[in-house]
UniProtKB/TrEMBL annotation:
GO terms for molecular function: metal ion binding; metalloendopeptidase activity. Residues 70-442 form the Peptidase M13 N-terminal domain. Belongs to the peptidase M13 family. This is Neprilysin-4. PROSITE patterns: NEPRILYSIN. One of its GO terms (biological process) is protein processing. It comes from Drosophila lebanonensis. Residues 1-18 form the signal peptide. The gene is LOC115621888. Its cofactor is Zn(2+). The lineage of its organism: Eukaryota, Metazoa, Ecdysozoa, Arthropoda, Hexapoda.
Length: 707
């Protein structure tokens, strides 16, 4: 027995014993050992056997087979997850599959960064990245006073922060102009404070870039309801405490003043939030974006502020063509907020927002902190480096094939009787759009990073100076891209997000490199059922998002009859999900059913794609669509892998917070809802009529007519 195999079995044993406190690291360890095993062996039959045993053990561990699969398929699939990956009152407050993927991805990034810089083989940009990382690690030895002086000097570039005043000093209010301050910060470091400015593809014609100005993505708390809901008071208190501690720790502000200042910051954000749309539930490119001329923007909020002036200061010039304003209601509300807030409070807020992005915790472990910082500042190049390792030809072909299968399923579903509710004209347009939708893996294969970072200079030790240089460099590149064709620069992403997303401006589904990591959800050693049930489902879900109300496109090309029919079907979901209860409480009945609709369609489309795949398999190949010691048929394996993707444990406060954010249905219902609407699930599990998983009333929008 080889050495690695012994290790693997040790790791497996740890998982099997389900030692709660070590479990997360145990399964992380298991995965890494599996990877080593693959690297070190070339006997694929042998490796496949071991890998399948390991996956089977993992899947069985999470299950609670005593639960009736027809009554609660989530419990049946995930009932033991919490024992193996328990959430804790501190961190992690939630455990799930994305976290396992994220941990493994962090490890891979770390291994890249820890490789000694090699001027021979490393790309020039990679050398800069490694030098930056080294300067970050080194910074932990900086004396506190020096660190504070550096932060103060940063503020000094733009003005004076009132909390820095010594007793007896007066803050020169007359020298402060909030709009100029935030515009100059934007111009130099790229931060969006109070206002947001983007250079991004035109929402009506993605072959050119435009300027967008308006509401920032989000404020300090995750969602709008966190600022208003009575239930969220606890989180607001926690937020105030957190800001206040930061002011003390990083800026040496006296404790009482820090608390007062933190409260003022919260109150200001509460006032700002009143005009916001919630970015979590509304995509910004929807009807909330208006086209404007420079003159419109100058006049709209006169005489209080002049958005054209902001653009001029932030960009260095005012483009003479169409500009877009995001969420005008936010600006209308801002008008009142800036008029009624003392300038001193605005100034503290603006500088706290600026400094917060540059804080370095001298007491925290440097490796973890620097890994996160590098991940935030250089996400594309890190993704690119890992893409070169993970994106081998076989994997990429495999994923493209899966994508084609999913698209074919959707095409068939749109052409089929299941979609007769959409009028012929709208359906034709939908098919055209579907044809044009493409898959993007964000490996940045076509970006020349040496070129991109040519102007960036990184000094060996001076971390904060380096960070400023990186931010300035990034900002110059982004703002400059106005005159360039889109795609010359990778579009700004929601950084470090692991979930695939649908990009409306590009009509593409983007798959993060982190999801190319094999042996979690899928692997060439596992049955295909697992790949369709997880990755296939995820791709299908984003594909469907391209056709929903949030994509903002629906209004453009859906005719009245199809829209009305869509509304009817949406209502079915609204009522159905409103009947689910968690911990004795009904879920809020929500008009936002896009996520639920996408979940429902996606599992059906992925299932259909998998069924088609099975049809073309020889009977001997079908035999490999099983896992040792699991009795599941190929179809049941598909459903099990889908359900287990959603296994989670959350501590009670975290659950409460998620329900406040109120976007996604709780995980259990993301399994129960879609599967109980799906006839094929009931058939494959022989669920009697009117069991929970097989109600007679099923909701359907996009999907397949099964028989
Ligand atoms: C497997 O590895 C051994 C030694 O590392 C090598 O001699 C052999 O050719 C390899 N076999 C295959 C099929 O790659
Ligand atoms: C989009 O803009 C380009 C120029 O940037 C122009 O040639 C093209 O006609 C425009 N397309 C549409 C549909 O307006
Ligand atoms: C707004 O700012 C622009 C650019 O600085 C300037 O040209 C314009 O006159 C200003 N408009 C008003 C109403 O102040
Ligand atoms: C806008 O500016 C560009 C150069 O910046 C110029 O070529 C173009 O003619 C201008 N268009 C209008 C309508 O003024
Ligand atoms: C979609 O593409 C396929 C082949 O790629 C083609 O046969 C079909 O006509 C296209 N359909 C539409 C509606 O454009
Ligand atoms: C990237 O750009 C640099 C300098 O601009 C150039 O020397 C190099 O050949 C380019 N690399 C590739 C792969 O195109
Ligand atoms: C299309 O309709 C046929 C007949 O109703 C059915 O057998 C087939 O499964 C349907 N396909 C999809 C994708 O709904």
């Amino acid at each position: 027995m080889s050495c690695t195999l012994v290790f693997l079995l040790v790791a497996l044993a740890a998982v099997l014993r389900s030692v709660p406190s070590q479990a997360l690291s145990a399964s992380g360890l298991q995965i890494q050992l599996q990877e080593q095993l693959i690297v070190q062996h070339n006997d694929s039959v042998y490796v496949q056997r071991v890998m399948r045993l390991a996956k089977s053990a993992e899947m069985r561990n999470y299950m609670q087979p005593d639960t009736d699969a027809c009554e609660n398929f989530y419990e049946y699939s995930c009932g033991n997850w919490a024992k193996i990956n328990p959430a804790e009152a501190v961190r992690p407050r939630e455990t799930n599959y994305y976290q396992l993927l994220d941990n493994a991805y962090r490890h891979k990034r770390l291994r890249l960064l820890e490789q000694a810089a090699d001027p021979e083989s490393d790309d020039a940009a990679v050398l800069k990245l490694k030098r930056f990382y080294a300067s970050c690690l080194h910074f932990r030895e900086t004396p506190r006073t020096l660190y504070r002086q550096q932060l103060q000097a940063l503020v000094g570039e733009f003005g004076r922060m009132p909390v820095f005043l010594l007793p007896g000093q007066e803050w020169p209010a007359s020298e402060f102009n909030w709009l100029e301050t935030v515009a100059r910060i934007k111009n130099k470091y790229g931060f969006d404070i109070l206002l947001r400015l983007d250079v991004a593809p035109d929402l009506h014609n993605n072959t050119r870039n435009r300027v967008y100005i308006g509401q920032p993505w989000k404020l300090g708390l995750e969602s709008k309801s966190m600022y208003s809901s009575a239930v969220a008071e606890l989180y607001r208190q926690e937020y105030v405490r957190h800001i206040s501690e930061e002011l003390v720790q990083h800026l040496h502000v006296e404790a009482e003043l820090a608390t007062v200042t933190a409260r003022e910051i919260l109150n200001l954000e509460i006032a700002l939030s009143k005009g916001m749309v919630d970015p979590l539930t509304t995509k910004p490119l929807s009807g909330l974006t208006q086209s404007r001329t420079a003159a419109d923007l100058a006049a709209a909020y006169a005489p209080t502020f002049n958005l054209t002036q902001y653009i001029e200061l932030a960009l260095g010039h005012v483009p003479n063509d169409t500009l877009y304003e995001y969420v005008p209601d936010y600006q209308k509300n801002l008008l009142g907020v800036v008029s009624s807030t003392p300038p001193r409070v605005l100034a503290n807020y603006i500088f706290q927002q600026l400094l917060q992005k540059l804080y370095y915790d001298l007491d925290a472990p440097a490796v973890d902190q620097c890994l996160s910082i590098v991940g935030q500042q250089f996400p594309e190049i890190l993704d690119h480096m890992l893409y070169l390792r993970l994106g081998d030809a076989a994997t990429l072909t495999d994923i493209q094939d899966l994508w084609k299968d999913i698209k074919a399923s959707f095409r068939e579903s749109l052409q089929n009787t299941s979609s007769v509710w959409i009028t012929a004209t709208t359906r034709e347009l939908a098919l055209e759009k579907l044809n044009a939708t493409h898959l993007q893996i964000n490996g940045y294969a076509d970006v020349n990073f040496t070129d991109r970072y040519a102007q960036l200079h990184i000094a060996p030790h001076d971390y904060l100076t380096n960070l400023r240089a990186v931010l300035e460099h990034e900002t110059r590149q982004r703002l400059k891209s106005l005159s360039e064709k889109p795609a010359s620069l990778p579009a700004p992403t929601k950084r470090s997000s692991l979930a695939p997303v649908y990009l409306a401006t590009e009509n593409a589904v983007r798959l993060p490199v982190a999801l190319l990591q094999p042996n979690f959800l899928w692997s060439r050693y596992y049955p295909r059922a697992l790949k369709y049930g997880t990755l296939g489902y995820l791709l299908a879900r984003e594909l469907v998002h391209g056709f929903d109300e949030l994509a903002g496109s629906q209004a453009d090309w859906w005719d009245a009859k199809s829209t009305a029919e869509y509304g009817k079907r949406k209502k079915c979901f609204k009522q159905q999900y409103g009947r689910f209860r968690q911990d004795g409480h009904y879920l809020a009945e929500s008009d936002l059913q896009a996520e639920n609709i996408a979940d429902n369609a996606a599992v059906q489309l992925a299932y259909k794609a998998y069924s088609d795949y099975l049809k073309h398999l020889s009977s001997s190949a079908i035999g490999s669509e099983a896992l040792p010691r699991l009795q599941q048929t190929p179809q049941q394996l598909f459903f099990l892998s889908f359900a287990q993707f959603w296994c989670t444990d959350a501590d009670d406060r975290f659950k409460e917070k998620v329900s406040l954010l109120n976007i996604h249905t709780p995980n259990a219902f993301r399994v129960i809802g879609p599967l109980s609407n799906f006839q094929a699930f009931a058939r494959d599990h022989r669920c009697a009529a009117e069991t929970t998983m097989n109600p007679s009333q099923k909701c359907q929008l996009y999907g397949i007519t099964s028989k």
